[in-house]
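Sat 14:20. Reprocessing the chain from the morning session after the first attempt stalled halfway. Input below, unchanged.
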Amino acid sequence: MSTQLLFREDAYLKSALARVVAVHERGIELDRTIFYPLGGGQPGDSGVLVRENGARIAITDTRKGEAPGSVRHIPAADVSLPEPGERVTLELDWDRRYSLMRLHTALHLLSCVVAAPVSGGNIAPDRARLDFDIDMGLLEAERITRDTNALIASAVSTETVWITDEELDARPELVKTMSVQPPHGVGRVRLVKIPGIDLQPCGGTHVGNIAEIGGIRVSRIRNEGKRNKRVEIVLAP
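Finished this time. Tokens:
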């Protein structure tokens, strides 16, 4: 059974009600969720499931399930698990998620400032990075910081756009990341659009306006191999 992904429609949902569909050694499956599952370089969400009796189940990670479209909520060890059919309240670790949203959107801007193919990427709550297939001498931390922050200051609202698999195949330039290809076979592909700045396939969670990022700083640039020059960023205080 597929899980209704509430974060796709509203990434700012902090709580929601859901019904337990299955409980097994690989996690808890619900009929709907606000928890983003690990994917595309963005970590899975954490938080709490609150049972009807008030008991709280800490969720330490969220992953995609075995069945297409299903989501597994990974509970902490040695907790009392709910029963299938039980209603629970989902409470997201919002501070962690919001940091991930800000940094994920910042990486989209970074991919516009550094004009090169993206060979990898990763996001953590306190930092994020993209790897580029580019000459090391073309990466200058001060310029990248300045130009990315200039884009952030434009305060453009983000948008979600859906296109068909065939439309994406006809526009291969939309896919910037060499290491992660957007899913095919479900009929449509989700794009994140920053009008006048960026448009690319992405299933992650993003801020509603890029001004919410607040600002970034390039914390490190290093050589990770022939086709991997790493630019790491942090959120500015």
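Helices lie at 6-9, 94-113, 141-152, 165-170.
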